[in-house]
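Hello,

Following up on my earlier ticket. Below are the two sequence lines again, exactly as submitted.
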Amino acid sequence: MKTFKRSFGLLLVIGLIAAACGTDGDDDASSSASSSAAVATTAAPVATTAAPAAAVETSEDESTLPDLGGRTVSVAIENAYLPYNYVDAETGEIGGFDYDFFGEICNRLNCELDYQEFAWEATIQSVGDGTFDTAGGGITITAEREETLDFTDSYISVDQRLIVELGEDRFASLEEFGQMDELTVCSQTGTTNAETAIENFGEDRVVLFETFGFAVQALLAGDCDSVIMDETAGQGYQGENAESLELLEGVLSADELGVPFPNGSDLVAPFNAAISSMKADGSLFELGSKYFTDAFTVTYDDIGDGAYAEEEVVPVAGGTLRLMMEAESDGINPTVNRFAISGHMMAGAIFDTLVWVTDDPCACVFVGGLAESWTSSDDLKTWDFKIRENVEFHDGTMLDAETVAFAVGRQLADPLISLALKPVLDIAREGGAVEVVDDMTVRFHALRPHVDFPTYFSGQLGYIPSLAYMQAAIEDPALNQMPVGTGAFMMDSREQDLMTRVVKNPNWWYNDHLAAGEVLLDAIEFYVYTDSELGAGAMEAGDLDGVSTSSIDAAMILRELADDGYQVVEQDLGEETFAMMNTSKAPFDDIRARKALTYATAKADYLEFIGQGELRSADTWFPPESIFHNPDVKQEADMPEMAAPLVAEYCGDNPDNCSDGKINMEFQYSGPSVIQDRIFDVLSAGYEPYFNVTKDMLLQDDHITQTAIGMFDFLTWRQMGARNPDGDGVWIVCDAIGVLSLNWPRYCDPARDELVYGARGNTDRDAVVQAWKDVAAHVQESYTYVMLTHTLWNATYDPRLRGMCSFTFPDGTEPYCRGTGGGYGSYSTMWFEE
Amino acid sequence: MGFVLKRVAQMVAVIIAATFLAFTAMSYLGDPLFNIVGFHASVDCDAVLAGEIEDVSGQGGTDVGDCEVVEAAREKYHLNDPLPVRYGRWVGDVVQGDLGVSFKNSMPVTTIIGNRIPKSIFLMVVAEIFALIIAVPAAIRAAYKANRVFDKSATVSSFGFISLPNFALGVILFYLFVVKWQIFPSRYEDDDLFSRLRSTVLPGLTLALPLAATYFRLLRTDLITTLQEDFVLMAKAKGLSDRWIMFRHVLRPSLFSLVTVFGLSTGGLIGGALVVEQIFVIPGLGRTFVEAVIRDDFPLVLGLVTIISSSFIAINFIVDLFYSVIDPRVSRET
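Thanks for your patience. The regenerated structure is below:
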């Protein structure tokens, strides 16, 4: 029987695809279509009408077919539905069964075809009301549709059958299966298969899965007794594990596909004649063989979106972007003011950096920004930066080497920045670490061989203001509020604590590299909302177009806006929240005290009450997604029983630092802040059994000072997480310990330094990654940090804002876009859809 | 005339006392040097210069050169002088109209205050107007029909508003009028008078409602007391209308407590403005004040203390003068 069908028949069984289109109730053809992509290859032709082999002869009544006299027939077509119609994604050529089928019909009837790309959803209705003459896409003939449509005779039939495990012996036929009430049928949610199964066996016996594949897996696992599918007669089930499955005897339903026309259309009769002539001469069979067998290899990965393709959007220039800042910056002069996030948000619009970092997992691939290129000496210690020509500042002056050297020199005058760069730049060198070689070349002297040296000029140190401006600002510090850079936007006005406005720079040197040829936004306004939750409210009220916050409470408000079309992006890959201990004084100069504290940390409570279940626990320096993450390093916590003996031992040796058998310590944090108070409460509760915790709340400036000069025992902090950890070395190396320290815990480990500096001078990336994994292990063993969480950032944008991550570098590479925008010219590509 | 002179002399004394207190407090509680030389301020430079402190790692950190910078800054800002001398120098500058420059951003303190004070004054004026518009008619109505439904409900709600903290009321108004109904903007707008008014309604109300409640309670009590005076009975007997009695004879003598509290409340308003300006993003004095204190921004704090204490005293001076308008006997007695 099977052989017969394969030879003579043209019963076409098309997989779930046809089932999807065959139901009126299915309002999402594209989703079920894509879910069944894999099934397309399993389809095969089978006879719908048992056409006698003899019919292959040339049809004798071709001459008797009606002549439509060149009449135009309009066909609604999706161009996104295999194997009926599609557009090749690469060549843009259309193809599919429908084109050949309608083409052959009109060939025989003498008509012209007018294909119109149209989404499936409204196709039935549009044919019914005469908008189109007919439509492609394998439409099932149903009684309901026949109320508004006239169908031709069936040209294809789709069978629904059951597959069961090979060698199934509990039942031998569909009928037997139907009688055994305990047997289940599995299927995919929302398909005609599922409907058919429920109709035939009742809801109780049907188990639904998200995909067809899951249903098959369940069958193999014995959780299902059968799976209903659109059958490829004669070929059986050809998907995964086909060797262990077989088709059950009997057909559950056979859907007939016909060509639809509006009620009363005079095209039905001629089309019927053509279809029967195609059946008769075997050309329909040939078409079926071409499209419904393994011979058809096009998959959904190969085709375009057809009627569902988004129209190519052309960015529109104009508009003002209103962004929230959680704090105000003292000023925006990068050579004077130390930037936190808000400073960088504004500076990212006004300045360009010397070096740009591409979106590479190691953040070690650099592209020239204001520095066109750079070369280093063989020992990687002398770096010549070639400054880009023809870059104009907002005040009309031109960028040159002298300006760059002056700007970097000004930053090095800041004691903390110079401290941070002491392990990097040869500051003690006679003649300085920065030299002007010629008009357009600046030479930097690195302290050690340094492969990723340019990374230091991709942040604040790389922002270059105009020379005239920097000099004027020394005389008049008020100018620190009105910086002059080279960036995509120029300062317009600034009212501290309220709003800073920058306007489009029509002469931006980068314009030629932009797809649009110009900066799109007219202006950006940065508003200060020190309470992020109120900022989120302002966003909801339409007073802001973009909010970026690390406040969980604000994030929860912002997430709800996603329902209104707001674009919400969250990531926690950039920064760690942790606590640290001062190893330069008692009690945490003793590793037993450090270990005890680490073990006693109430991390689970911290995650629940502070993280509100939304924050990921941090076990080590890098998030698991980072290539530098060392999965073997996992810090202990919530193990108070391990703390007890250590504390007893420590207090035995150091009775002066203990009272009542507990270690005395101060817990310092920055306030006043409700969240910091809460953190203190949660963590102290865990420490109390072993430590006498004294609260020491300080204003932020004092907090930082006390930390830098080592006047603390234990405190909470947020840092690390640079994509390229080279820059994080400064927080741990011995060089950064002094009267003032950036190595806050003041823990010196020469072996660790060797790893950090070794990595710095190593060109072998794998070795660098390994070195940082080893550093993480060393850090863990030193018990100086109590890792808490990965800081979660929420960025929410207005529904109409586009181009947040569209900025590309001249060589086509892209910056790392966290979806939070800002920086590296990414404001320049943002625009508002009308 | 003697009255005015005496009051002016009092005012000057109070301002000197207030600023001297602030000057002393700032000198001992904060470290002005920190803002000038940053972290190095915290280092014991005497010890470093004497070679007593050993650098922990032998590298990095503060060295002798840095401490010379600290010394230079001490000299420049006269930080080595005794406190009274420094205060005297500061007063000398102030008299010449020089309040110094802010440590925060090196802007002249007069510029910063000049920039911000109009916004705060505007907010406070709006708040006071709201408070009076709400309180006076309500008090009159309540006093007329004391212990009736309106009086009772107004009294109960006034208790509510007095006990409700500013930040809670502000956030509630923000949520309702900004987020939910989107009637008012979420932040200060300064395009024209209308936008300024519009964006001041909510912060104004936040400040005004508790104030109105206080005014209401005072005025209501005073009115009820006055209404029981014999001259009111006399006026009624004469056949004067209730309205005439209230506005011509009762209201004026009942205003004393209200006017006194009006003057004193400006102090509370400045405090309330700190919070309200944060919620409604108004770059006024309140915000500046908080930040200046947190940062130990010496010149700015002193400038603000001077301005705020002077205006507070000035307002109360005006209030005192106003007593004689309400009741001519006041000036005659003095």
